[in-house]
Specification:
By secondary structure, this protein is mostly helical. It contains 22 helices and no strands. It is globular, with a radius of gyration of 23 Å. The chain crosses the membrane at residues 40-59, 65-84, 104-127, 147-171, 183-202, 222-244, 265-283, 303-324, 356-376, 382-406, 427-447, 453-472.
Length: 496
């Protein structure tokens, strides 16, 4: 590749209209997501069920040491996001990590990544409607008007499906306000908690103190092993931070908005996870938490604000629905990316006049209805079943991001590809560290008998992927052939 071709290729998907394979980077999508919306989607995507519901179980297992688990995992997440940012600035496309896996590892890996990430969001959607149905029980469990958990899950799935039949700009606006509610609630809880600890007002004022972080059997009350075993719950809480990569094809100015969103990761983790947990565990000793109970609701009940607990329950309900809404957004686009590359049913490549992948979203929403059946059959265990499988499938996308970034960096350093304008600091060592950490979490999931079910399902899914890949490849070899991602000068000029 000549230097002129490299330069023109970098003029890239977002401005030249090419994604490296001759296709429009937005591929028919409307670039309706502005900086304000991208920022809040990035923030809100990481604040959901894992923090508001899953943290209760993790606190019960690890105690205050959960704070350290979130801090270390948060550092790994930042390494992953910077690796993704480097790829996004090299070539911002709607297929994101699926497309990068296709380019740097081969068609098979792009195929597996696209379908696995789609499966992740379908399973996550089931998780989120399960959590939302659980939150509804907060108001109905002691009343005569009890709503079955499966009925709530069904209603939420249907409502969110129709919410996705709108323009991407309106979707971004809704997500902005959903995220604003979550952010406001967490900051409000932190400020009230600080007031309880320092001034001593409310019923919890006499016992609220930072010494609660170590005075009840120490910072590691159940040992380091128990802390390590909570890492899958911690990593699940961070799943969806990579969603900003999927928005690349619909962001108004991806070269500016995406780096800003990625660089907010450290302070988001510091405030919304570490800061919130420090305050909560100072107000409420870890020994008082029970699995399946939101730590935020428990904190407000301890403070003596029953109305506050109801408000927080509404906020976490909003958080779960927001995350599920984002899932429906991403699944439709991932299916369409697969269809455009000949690795999925062609009819899923259709867009509405408003630039929405309606058919892909409809297929995904239909499969999310499986969550209704799970809630009907096992209302008490539904959340734990789907969390473990969502974690392993979601981490696959992170693995592909890191491996693709390592391959890209190697080629860029050799001068075969243009250097990204947003290079990951410390790479390749930071990417290798993140990969090692992810594999450690997978090993720990195999040790934990409650999480092991996801590893039993993984080989089955892998077998389906391998068999389907070779069957489809035999029918359409061209769709699974390696593509030339080089954009030549004359091709770029035609797009202007």
């Amino acid at each position: 590749m000549t230097s002129e071709q490299v330069a023109d290729r970098t003029a890239d998907a977002g401005t030249a209209g090419q994604d490296g394979s001759g296709q429009d980077a937005s591929e028919g999508y409307q670039r309706g997501l502005g900086n304000r919306q991208i920022q809040m989607i990035a923030i809100g995507g990481a604040i959901g069920t894992g923090l508001f519901l899953g943290a209760g179980t993790a606190i019960h297992k690890a105690g205050p040491s959960l704070i350290l688990a979130y801090a270390i995992a948060g550092l790994v997440i930042f390494f992953i996001m910077r690796a993704l940012g480097e790829l996004l600035m090299y070539r911002p496309v709607s297929g994101s990590f699926s497309d990068y896996a296709r380019e740097f590892l081969g068609p098979f890996w792009g195929y597996v990544t696209g379908w696995t990430y789609w499966l992740f969001w379908v399973v996550t959607g089931i998780t989120e409607v399960t959590a939302a149905a659980t939150y509804v029980n907060f108001w109905t469990k002691d009343s005569s008007f009890h709503i079955p958990q499966w009925a709530s899950a069904l209603a939420f799935t249907v409502i969110l499906y129709f919410a996705n039949l709108i323009s991407v700009k309106l979707f971004g606006e809704l997500e902005f306000w959903f995220s604003m509610v979550k952010v406001t609630a967490i900051i409000g809880m932190i400020l009230i908690g600080i007031g309880v600890i320092t001034v001593g007002f409310s019923d919890a004022g006499d016992t609220a103190t930072f010494t609660n972080l170590w005075s009840h059997s120490g910072f590691f009350p159940n040992g380091i092993r128990s802390t390590l075993m909570t890492l899958q719950i911690v990593m699940f809480a961070f799943l969806a931070v990579e969603l900003v990569g999927v928005t690349a094809g619909e962001a108004k100015d991806p070269k500016k908005t995406l780096p800003k969103a990625i660089n907010t990761v450290p302070w988001r983790i510091a405030v919304f996870y570490i800061g919130a947990l420090i305050i909560i565990l100072s107000v409420v000793p870890w020994t008082e938490f029970m699995p399946g109970v939101s730590p935020f609701v428990a904190a407000f009940e301890k403070i003596g604000l029953p109305a506050g607990a109801g408000i927080v329950n509404f906020v976490v309900l909003t958080a779960a629905l927001s995350s599920c809404n984002s899932g429906m957004y991403s699944t439709g686009r991932m299916l369409r990316d697969l269809a455009l590359n000949g690795q999925g049913p062609k009819f899923l490549g259709h867009l509405t006049k408003n630039g929405l992948p309606l058919r892909g979203t409809s297929v995904s929403a239909a499969l999310m209805l499986v969550g209704v059946w799970i809630n009907y059959q096992w209302p008490g265990e539904a959340f734990n079943y789907v969390v473990s499988f969502a974690t392993i499938s979601g981490m696959w996308a992170w693995i592909m991001i890191l491996v693709a970034q390592l391959r890209y960096r190697r080629k860029a350093d050799r001068g075969e590809l243009p250097q990204s304008e947003f290079r990951a600091p410390g790479a390749p060592w930071t990417s290798l560290f993140a990969l090692a950490f992810i594999f450690m979490v997978i090993v720990l999931m195999g040790i934990d008998e409650n999480s092991r079910v996801s590893l039993y399902c993984a080989p089955i899914w892998a077998a389906i992927m391998v068999v389907s890949y070779y069957v489809l490849k035999s029918r359409n070899p061209q769709a699974f052939a390696r593509k030339d991602y080089t954009v030549h000068v004359d091709e770029v000029e035609k797009t202007h």
